[in-house]
Specification:
- With 832 residues, the protein is mainly beta.
- The chain is built from five helices and 49 strands.
- The strands form 14 sheets. Strands 3-4-12-10-6-7 form a six-stranded mixed sheet, with no helix packed on it.
- The termini are far apart.
Length: 832
């Protein structure tokens, strides 16, 4: 007979053994739910764009005051009305309670009474008499936990939440590239290692506009900086003036230059703004034609199903247009190496430089390529001009080719000098067509338009061909032969470096359309004239001085009229009127080199954490404490927030800094205006001393805020300044915040109003504090500092001193101290 203990153990074993053969039911899971389609009540599909991380952007319903949102469940479901919530907001983010589901139809509160995968929700926009046009955003949320209609499936749905942004009714265009423009002289050759361009977009892509959105051609993108986003386009960035558009000022179409912003097709983003960027490019060594364009922004994140998204396009017709969405830049950062002895180009071919007559001097045009120069060929250059063999204006010049000419644009732009050497004369270099043609292919043919004109003032023909008549090219810095030595036979000398220093070429490069066909990106039209530079007719006009040269003026003479393109100059004759050379501008005073700030030069001096219940932006004040002007090039600010705070960004982000901070000036609070930089979490009102200041920078686009105006967690944060790194080990500058094992402390908040935290650089006993110390910070409202000059960002009732830094210890250590400004009189009342 078994004992009771043994019987119990055997029974337990049998039970466990039996359970092992019983199938365990599958655990219930969650199935997906996604947005499928948004349309108006008439069934018209709306334009969708999901280039932004915080929801959809759609055109509004037509005449209907409602939209239909179709949602796709992975299982058939019946959606209870209590699981669906909608809310509407105006353009300023104000809640519009009139937006409701199914028009508030109490007879049909359930979105779908019959089980289905596709569920359509009707969202009324204009209920209770509210104008539908006021609704600029609708937030839709379907709570999780909706059960499958399949009785044998225990899965429940996931949550769906999305924002649907409604734009004005005529915003039908997709995002466009509105303008690409070179900063500075728009068609001058680039001879420096870097150059800059403005790019103007009608909308900002998700995550910001970055270097990989740009096709930089024969260059690389060094940086992309977002500038202020204007509500309307500055006309200088939109329309091309006459000199940049073949002499004809550009008139913008209505969709690009609207008279009423509320009906504009210009900005396509939800904030009614266009977006301007400054892009810096690095050139590559060697002579290049750089074609810059913005790539189509295809492949952006988008929902599945029937919703479609238009790509970012360069123009509505997707045709590249110079100056609008295509920028052609000539870069000449490296020229043919020229020895100090100079490169000689001999004028051979037994050519003749015609003699001067009673009415006109004689001329020889030396072209790099005779056909490419478009100069009309007057006849046999080996013969003296004959009146019976030549047409008018062709009697007094010859045309020869000298393919050995260097690229005159690159050569002269880099400070080159040209000597005209001949045993007979007198001869002068009187005109230079130095410009390149941007419409030609990217090889030596772009310089075929170049020529040098030589003027003969003697009354005898000068015959060449023995090698003693030549042009000699000297690079900048070369040792030049003495012109006063007769044996050197130097008839004339011209160049861009003379007694007055370096000067900029007169005239311009251009694009004639010679090498462009109808199938190319640009039609065969003359788009920009090539303009030579003329020398003063005086024999004593020094060819190395800027005052001796000026850009040629129309009409162009002696050009072949059958050639495509517009050229301004007078090769082979005197112009009908010599251009007046402008008075040389005084040499600019070199700008002082501003040193980059060191790690100890910039401090975090004041922080506004309180958002006033999400109504006002947070901000951080940085101050230059070095006592000298410093550059912020290469600096950044890294902010890490408490991971548990979902109202702001949860990840570490970097905010790029730029510009300079000076040594300050002004009166009151240490006189430090100019030293401080205010990083703000959104646009807001401010005191007059901050309005329009370049010391206020909106960083909201850099930090991708989740909460309105918030980028600093009220639970915990750490802000760290990062100077340019000089070693492989990351080195920080000043830090501030309460995150970290050794720095845990509660962030002070004012219960009665919005107050900033002011940095206490030292205690009353002279002990220094750290930005991570609790005793290093105090509420501005607990100090008399706010009784100084009125300065605020967000609300005039804020307590703070943005733009000022008093330095040193805070003046008081009282536990209860309350200054307030009387709105009626402006007086400060202090209680404690």
């Amino acid at each position: 007979m078994m004992s009771n203990k043994w019987a119990f153990s055997l029974t337990t074993f049998i039970t466990i053994f039996a359970l092992a053969f019983v199938a365990t039911p599958a655990m219930a899971g969650e199935f997906d739910v996604s947005l499928y389609q948004v349309q108006n009540a008439a069934g018209d599909a709306t334009l969708m764009d999901v280039s932004h991380a915080d929801g959809l952007q759609v055109s509004p319903p037509a005449a209907d005051a409602s939209i239909e949102v179709t949602v796709n469940f992975d299982r058939e479901v019946v959606v209870p009305a209590g699981k669906v919530m909608v809310a509407g907001y105006d353009k300023d983010g104000g809640l519009l309670p009139a937006v409701m589901l199914n028009g508030g139809d109490t007879d049909d509160p359930i979105p779908n009474a019959t089980a289905a995968k596709m569920v359509t929700l009707v969202i009324t926009l204009g209920a209770d008499g509210t104008a539908a046009q006021m609704v600029r955003k609708v937030t839709l949320k379907i709570a999780k936990g909706i059960g499958s209609h399949d009785p044998f499936n225990d899965d429940t749905s996931k949550e769906l939440k999305t924002d649907i942004h409604l734009l004005p009714g005529d915003r039908a265009n997709g995002p466009d590239v509105l303008k690409i423009a070179l900063v500075g002289e728009p068609f001058s050759p680039i001879t420096t290692a870097t150059f800059e361009a403005h790019i103007l977009l009608s909308e900002e892509p998700m995550g910001g506009f970055k270097a990989d959105h740009i096709d930089a051609g024969e260059s690389t993108v060094a940086s992309v900086v977002k500038l202020a986003s204007p509500m309307m386009a500055p006309m200088g960035l939109m329309a091309r003036p006459g000199p940049n558009n073949g002499g004809t000022a550009e008139t913008l179409p209505a969709e690009i230059a609207p008279t009423d912003r509320s009906t504009a097709g210009l900005a396509t983003w939800r904030d009614d703004k266009i977006h301007l960027y400054l892009v810096t490019f690095n050139t590559k060594e060697g002579e290049k034609t750089v074609k810059i364009k913005v790539k189509d922004f295809a492949g952006m994140e988008r929902p599945t199903g029937a919703i479609t998204q238009p790509s970012y396009v360069r123009k509505p017709d997707s045709m590249l247009t110079e100056g609008r969405d295509l920028l052609t830049v000539k870069t000449n950062t490296a020229v043919t190496a020229i020895k100090s002895a100079g490169i000689e180009v001999k004028l051979l071919n037994e050519g003749i430089i015609p003699k001067a007559t009673a009415s006109e001097d004689g001329f020889l045009v030396v072209a790099k390529n005779k056909a490419g120069s478009a100069v009309r060929n007057p006849g046999d250059a080996k013969k003296s001009p004959a009146a019976t063999a030549r047409q008018p204006f062709g009697l007094t010049y010859n045309l020869i080719e000298a393919g050995g000419l260097p690229n005159l644009e690159a050569f002269l732009a880099n400070g080159g000098t040209i000597d005209l050497v001949a045993p007979d004369g007198p001869l002068f270099i009187s005109e230079i067509m130095w410009g390149t043609d941007a419409s030609l292919s990217e090889d030596s043919s772009v310089v075929n338009s170049q020529y040098i004109e030589i003027r003969n003032t003697a009354n005898v023909d000068i015959k060449m061909g023995d090698g003693t008549h030549k042009l000699v090219f000297y690079d900048a810095g070369a040792t030049l032969p003495d012109m006063s030595v007769a044996a050197n036979n130097i008839q004339d000398r011209v160049g861009t470096v003379g007694a007055g220093g370096f000067w900029t070429l007169k005239g311009q490069s251009g694009r004639t359309g010679i090498d462009e066909g109808t199938a190319d990106v640009v039609a065969v039209i003359p788009t920009l004239a090539l303009i030579s530079m003329q020398r003063k007719p005086d024999d004593d006009a020094d060819g190395t001085l800027a005052s001796s040269w000026a850009a040629s003026v129309p009409p162009g003479l002696n050009f072949d009229l059958t050639k495509v393109g517009t050229r301004v100059g007078s090769p082979g004759r005197s112009p009908t009127a010599y251009p007046v050379a402008p008075t040389p501008a005084p040499e600019p005073t070199p700008a002082p080199v501003i040193p980059v700030a060191g790690a100890m030069d910039i401090m975090i001096t004041e922080i506004m954490v309180d958002t006033g219940n999400g109504r006002l932006p947070q901000w951080i004040e940085l101050t230059n404490v070095s006592g000298a002007e410093k550059s912020l090039a290469g600096w950044s600010l890294m902010i890490t927030n408490a991971a548990a705070d979902a109202s702001v960004i949860g990840a570490t982000v970097n905010i790029n800094l730029s510009g300079t901070l000076g040594v300050g000036g002004g009166e009151g609070m240490g006189g430090t205006m100019g030293k401080s930089l205010l990083l703000v979490g959104g646009s807001a009102r401010s005191s007059s001393n901050l309005a329009g200041s370049d010391r206020v920078v909106d960083i909201s686009s850099q930090v991708n805020q989740r909460g309105r105006y918030a980028f600093i967690s009220t639970m915990g944060f750490m802000a760290a300044l990062i100077p340019p790194q000089k070693t492989g080990v990351l080195a920080y500058g000043d830090t501030a915040g309460n995150l970290g094992a050794d720095a845990a402390w509660d962030i002070p908040m004012d219960d009665s109003g919005r107050s900033s935290l002011i940095r206490r650089e030292m205690l009353a006993d002279g002990m220094a504090t750290m930005g991570t110390d609790a005793n290093g910070w105090g509420l501005a409202s607990d100090t008399p500092l706010v009784s100084g000059p009125a300065t605020w960002y967000g609300s005039d009732e804020d307590a703070g001193t943005p733009g000022y830094d008093a330095g040193g210890p805070l003046p008081v250590e009282l536990s209860h101290f309350r200054p307030a400004r009387d709105k009626a009189t402006g007086a400060v009342v202090i209680t404690w």
